[in-house]
Specification:
With about 525 residues, the chain is α/β, with parallel strands linked by helices. The protein has 15 helices and 24 strands. Strand 21 and strand 22 form a beta hairpin. The chain has a nine-stranded mixed beta sheet with strand order 1-4-5-6-8-7-21-22-20. A six-stranded mixed beta sheet has the order 17-16-15-14-23-24, with no helix packed on it. A four-stranded mixed beta sheet has the order 3-2-9-10, with helices on one face. Helix 1 packs across helix 2, helix 1 crosses helix 3 and helix 2 crosses helix 3.
Length: about 525
């Protein structure tokens, strides 16, 4: 009787994986176990599905702690190495150079892809030789296939063997490692924000990218994995109890960027400008002052990275007369002297004017909160709102005048903010206006998805264009779509309960590669 996969136990799978590792291949392992090759292959496939690693761990041992250096921040570079695949020579050379520049420790986890050279190349080869499991010797001094606590609340799951062709490598791992953020080795770069209990920072699950070349079966799953394969690593900085994570994503030739640092041909250069900064949603009067200072204050992120452009999202909060508010919210706004729409717009305009820089092109993507003003002018009864009556009539008059002269895409938020002092150098984008910088679409806010659906980082990743978006307040990376967090306060009143919000921004480099930076306790990186 043929054995069914459902009859295979984790112990069976572990024994098969250990036998393959010891014998050097499926065929000799089958001979050693007294089983058919097919039976061993079934167990190995089960091991991959269950995350049983090639080095024989079913349940990881408790995470050991790394000992950081004394007197300076600790830095680590995490990446993955795929089985039976050579290192990308250019990327590996540059990663070693970056590690030397930062004094960072490189940690490589091995991930197994159950393929044969005959399937990859489409030709017959010696099967016994083909089934030997090996990893590039360049990685040997840096291997770390175990679970490690990198910093308080951040775990390296080097023991996790996610199949390299997984379309969504972070699927089903939300609760893995509890509330602690986790880094998983995988050739695709991904980031998922996971909601945590109130008072707890949002959990971030990351994947690393790989230091190995593309090596996949030429079938649908393999070709998709090859398309999304990233030559990359995750840079982690640890200072005291705080930590920061950034993606290091290489160009096809292996050249890499990290903030203002670039590495090509093993040579490190510094002081490079980034192409675009995409901050989290601004929300004007609700912006977090510590975050604003960390990014636009003296010596902050903008001074250090000198972006050529910045793209702002949801600059207006419109809490003064939001249609989401209740009668009690309006009463509270009255007692807080925060019910004036014109006053809120003036404060928002002052913030945007402060953010604008003469050497940085500033764009405002059209967002749903900016459109709350349009809805208010369309639906509100100004006779019952004496505080805002004068401004309401001025705004309604401007909208009507635009229609009279044939302007059908009149931007009420842009009109109001310019009237309040936003410089002419700031460009307001319409909903249908395209803005592509460094090969990335920057005009999508993220609230509108395909065919009338609500927008999300997952469905916007399927539109066929790389994009940077905002809207959800939760950082994320799904294939070609990167989503910023928010620069507002993390407690806005209406987001009660568990939250995945974070103070996260996207940096886009001149070659179109990107990273997400999360601000923690008023800092966006470790000390120099």
């Amino acid at each position: 009787m043929t054995e069914r996969r459902s009859e295979i136990t984790p112990s069976d799978a572990l024994a098969a994986v250990q036998a393959v590792a010891a014998a050097g291949g499926i065929r000799p392992a089958a001979a050693a176990l007294g089983m058919t090759r097919a039976a061993v292959q079934r167990r190995v496939r089960k091991a991959e599905a269950w995350g049983i690693t090639a080095h024989g761990e079913v349940t990881a041992s408790p995470a050991r702690r790394l000992d950081p250096p004394k007197g300076r921040p600790a830095r680590y570079l995490f990446t993955a190495a795929q089985s039976n695949t050579k290192a990308h020579p250019g990327f590996w050379e540059n990663l070693l150079a970056l590690a030397a520049y930062y004094g960072a420790r490189i940690m490589v986890a091995r991930v197994r892809y159950n393929h044969s050279a005959s399937q990859v190349a489409g030709e017959k080869v010696n099967r016994a030789a083909d089934e030997t499991l090996w990893y590039d010797e360049a990685f040997t001094p840096h291997l770390c296939d175990e679970r490690v606590e990198v910093a308080p609340g951040l775990i390296w799951a080097g023991d996790m063997n996610i199949i390299p062709s997984a379309v969504q490598p972070l699927s089903g791992l939300d609760s893995f490692t509890g509330a602690a953020s986790c880094i998983f080795p995988h050739p695709q770069i991904a980031l998922r924000s996971v909601a945590t209990a109130p008072g707890t920072p949002a959990k971030m699950n990351y994947t690393t990218g790989a230091a190995t070349l593309k090596n996949y079966i030429k079938r649908k799953a393999g070709l998709k994995a090859e398309f999304h394969h990233a030559f990359g690593a995750l840079l982690v900085e640890v200072e005291g109890a705080d930590w920061w994570v950034r993606q290091v994503n290489a160009a096809p030739d292996g050249a890499i960027h990290d903030l203002d640092v670039a590495v090509a041909g093993g040579i490190v250069s510094t002081g490079n400008r980034i192409a675009v900064l995409t901050p989290g949603d601004l929300h004007g009067t609700k912006a977090d002052p510590d975050v604003i200072s960390a990014v636009w204050g003296e010596g902050g992120m903008v001074d250090a990275l000198r972006p050529e452009a910045q793209v702002l999202h949801d600059v207006l909060d419109f809490g003064s007369r939001s249609h989401h508010g209740t009668v009690f919210d309006r009463i509270a706004a009255h007692y807080d002297a925060a019910e004036s729409v014109e006053g809120e717009i003036a404060a928002t305009a002052a913030l945007v004017a402060r953010i604008a820089r003469p050497d940085v092109r500033t764009f405002v993507a059209k967002g749903n909160h900016d459109e709350h003003l349009d809805r208010w002018v369309r639906d509100a009864e100004w006779r019952r709102d004496p505080v805002n009556a004068a401004f309401y009539l001025a705004a309604a008059g401007a909208a009507v005048e635009a229609l009279r002269v044939g302007v059908r895409d009149f931007d009420l938020a842009a009109w109001a903010l310019r009237r309040a002092g936003v410089p002419d150098a700031v460009t307001f984008l319409s909903r249908d206006e395209k803005l592509e910088l460094a090969g990335i679409r920057h005009d999508l806010h993220g609230d509108l998805g395909p065919n009338g659906a609500r927008g999300s980082v997952a469905n916007l990743a399927r539109i066929g264009a790389k994009a940077n978006v905002g809207h959800s307040h939760s950082a994320g990376i799904v294939q070609g779509c990167y989503q910023a967090g928010t620069f507002s306060r993390l407690a806005m009143g209406y987001n009660r309960g568990p939250s995945s919000w974070s103070h996260s921004a996207i940096v886009t480099y001149a070659n179109g590669k990107r990273a997400i930076i999360t601000i923690r306790n008023g800092k966006w990186r470790a000390s120099a």
